[in-house]
Structures
1.
Amino acid sequence: MKYQISLILSALLPLTVIAASVHADWKKDGLTITDDTYENMEVVPLDDGRYRMYFSQNGSILSDISTDGLNWTREEGTRISGAGMPAIVELDDGTLRLYFNRQLDEKNAVYSATSSDGLNFTEEAGVRLQAGHPGGYDTLSGTTHPTVIQLPSGRYRMYYDTFYTQGDGNTPWHILSAISDDGLTFTIEQGVRIKGKRDLPGDTKFAWSPHIQKRNGQYQLFVTAQYDEPLKSNGIYLATSDDGKHFTVKPKPIVYRDTSAERVDTDKGMNGAPQDPFVLKIDGVDTIYYWVVNKGIYRAHKRTTTTT
């Protein structure tokens, strides 16, 4: 979900609740959480076969537990207070490092905390990443929606979104990246990983809320995109890369907006438009969780036999 700084003004129309649709290669499992205040979820498989979901809610990071990845029960306590947009990485010794957003000088910055049990986190000193891109792409929002992957070299790469004000007054969102030897000190990398008009099909300036994974030797970056027209183009796109820096975006979204209702813009995004993807394997099958404005969290899985 867009955080802290809204790009679009809320309309004065009543918000019609509609669900998103999925590409033929994927099958929707349904609405798994009906509370739409759950935002920016991350799902971690546990050693006992259960799943833990970390998410932002009302200015804190909380967690739910599930035996099947569909039905969730709230866990007691708060994982991290005054934080949002969690991103989990398991370190070599089994420790979990949770990256999260928090305000710094009125912009978003990335911080981190570690845990040995997944419930009790200790914040690490310092800031992992803050605004400072050499191209000036993060001058307005800072560093938002982190997602982190460990590379074969042992280094870590963080992808994140940000926006800035152009000379024409527009505020495009892009996906940037930063690199680290230890997962603590990150250096912003040159260039833009995903740039709306350059990389996404059609005419859009908005690309945000990335999720990174690696499958079969290829980096896969799931990205939310917003379009004025056609409305069906709004959704979550898959971009692939051999080196983790130069991505090619697939021409059609894997999850997209259902166009059966009139468009309404809100401070959290367009009604019916899916965003905030998180993908993991459940029972050996790629499974995606995504959030829909005023509806909640849905889940879909990739079909074992795909269409062309």
2.
Amino acid sequence: MANMAVDAAIPDSANPVILGAGISGICTALVLQAVGFEPCIVSKYIPMQQDSVPQFPAVPTDYAMASAYPHNLRVENLPGLSSASQQVFKHLEQVQNSGVSRYRIFEVYEQEPTEPPLWQERINFQRFDGKPELLRKSMNVPVRREAGQIWGWSFDSFFADMPLYLSFLWKEFKANGGQVIEMELNAPEQIESLCSKRPIINCLGIGAKTLFADSAPLNIVRGKQVLIPNTPMLKADGELPFAYNYTPSPEIFSRADGNSEYVHFFARTGDWLLGQTREPGQLNKKNEWVGEAVLGEYVDLNGIQIPKAILTLNEELLCDLFGVTFADRELIAREGYRYYRDPDGEGVRLCAEQFGSGTVIHNYGHGGSGITMSWGCALETARLFVEIADSNNVNRKITGGENVSGEASTLKHVLKSQFQTFQANKTEKALAALS
């Protein structure tokens, strides 16, 4: 009976059905719409329906920090996926009300760091190191007052202001005829019934492990942040909005293993976001996080324990740069869980597999890189789906000429153009491997 109820809720025209309404689900849906399909999203949780303090931290899409610059992730074809994502964000930066803009980000360390991943792909990348008092003469770099030496780099990064960005994406999806069904799927038999009629795309995140019997190791990384509403935009040297990741020495702020933890800051439209923690762990049977909490003192904000260093260190850095403090400001604590699939092995699950009599395409396990890599992974997911659809002679809607200029103004046309490029690159690499 449960299978019949699920089948009845899904329109016959829906092809494919996408499980999960997080950033992976909505981006995949938009790419598939751009190439002529009619995806339907099915999810228990729908974005933009949570309070400012989420009731279920395992669904953190609404309140992600959402910087989007090339960095490390365990996934096949990382450079290609990263580059594709950056191209889409570059377009969105030019779209009014998309919620995507460009920031100047500083990554600062009080101990000499390792080489940053994909630094050659970052925009306007600039290194620095030396005594803080000397560096401050040439740049407004955030630095702790007692730091004797710092290392780091600055660069431009795309940033998605999540309340605005999610609203924009969902408006696009619905304007293209997209449908969303609020429903929980909790049994493999339901999936088998659905994918017997059309391929299923799995973007469930944490929920995928049980539903699809994924035996790969997982790491649930807890993150804590503080939202400060009704605040001004802060800009680097009066130009781009300002952000940073700051890693002090371990005695100032450290993880459970004794290594340094970092704090970060992003100014958004109307509020500031302070973070963070990256605490590895698991969820128990009650969906409660159990793991390795950061060390040091904590303060209680609206019932959530926040490391004191997130407040004190960020306030010191911002006070010295901009003369602002947190006194008499509202502080709202939040926490969320990032699902890192098999972080030391296979990593992100981005593939197709036989499931019963049908096919499931997986796109999950991105951890804290879900937004950064969202468009590249969506394009690869769509490519896998199109291969299956074309082999089964599935009809598509006519969405315009086969060759769409990269200068086209709409997101739909840009995604179609990116898909064609992405597909061609994959074909070229496959042929080269055979030669």
3.
Amino acid sequence: MNRDQFRERVLSEIEGVYPRAFGRESQLSLVAKIPASTSVGRRVGPNVAVEHSYTGIDITNVEDLLSLEDFQFVRCCYLALLNRDPDEIGFQANLNTLRNGTVDRLGLIRVFRESPEGKTVKAKLKGLRSITLLRKLERIPLIGPGIRLLADLARVSKLRQRIEQLESRVDRTTTLIRGSESPNDESTDQFDYDQFYLEFENHFRGDRETIKTRQSFYIPIVQELRRSLGKYPVLDISCGRGEWLCLLKENQIEAEGVDINAASLAECRIRNLNVRHNDAFRFLGDIEDGTYLVVTAFHFVEHLPLTSMIKLVDEIRRVLIPGGKIILETPNPSNLNVGAHTFYLDPTHRNPLPDALLKFIVSQRGFTDVVSQGLQAPEERNVFKNFEGAEVLNRLLFDCQDYCVIGTK
């Protein structure tokens, strides 16, 4: 009797004694079936050991595959088990079943392997049989906790290596973030940079009441969440002069803001607003998980490089309560005057962000129900009429000046 036959024998004996410990009801009926068609998606080759470009790990190793975030996990299941890129409909269906708890990760791997397409590919995952057996043994009354303890002890060495790798990545990311948020212009030592930027905003952004009127659009969103989830506080990142914080205070909504600009924060403190003088990333790093109902960042993400933007969205998701919302507002480059001209009035802007890109980033980092909404539409949007192309020209020149992206944790 070889090793695999011995395992099967042990498993059958245990199932005969403890049938309830294994939950024999098939999970295949609970999730979307994997399409049988082999024509959808890019093939990556038979039984290929793929090193995922984002994580740098072997996704044909079940332990590495299970360590991925849900978005990457489902995508890599397609690569590892079906040898192709995911199709959009199937990917979203399987991601949803994983996120809503209909099926766990091992169950989803089983669905992929037992689908018609999976049976055709016959892909192998290193360590799958062992971890499946271990999970079943862990469910057995009396001996399960002891087996789980032994398994945890065996993982300590590998977890330590993984933590060291993650710490190295965090250090590199922190270096990038701090470098991106520090003014590089040597002349900033010769004048008050914070005061300069405050006066710049006063000149170009608009008066306080105008900004408060625009931001009143978000008050019903916050109020509805307070009724359904509870009276958790709101955080405003890069709060600036504090118009949004004032609006929240006027509506009896607890809130706090953070900004690195001391001159802007002085304006906030005159109005008795709760604000902190700190770098946004360092501030978020000190906040416990599940603290805020809503986290907002108005006209902030366009100042960040991609790595920092992703870090920001990840940190916001961490500090939100389940069901809480992220709100990001930024200039709308679909309006040509904004994308080609007014966006660059601010010398600290990096590059315009099309709404499809920002929506993708927020969704890819784990938020659901992600939507975008145009804001600050011109009073007259149909200036050109009665000639071919007038509608397109009106849309390019007179589209909304800003937009927001809203997602739910």
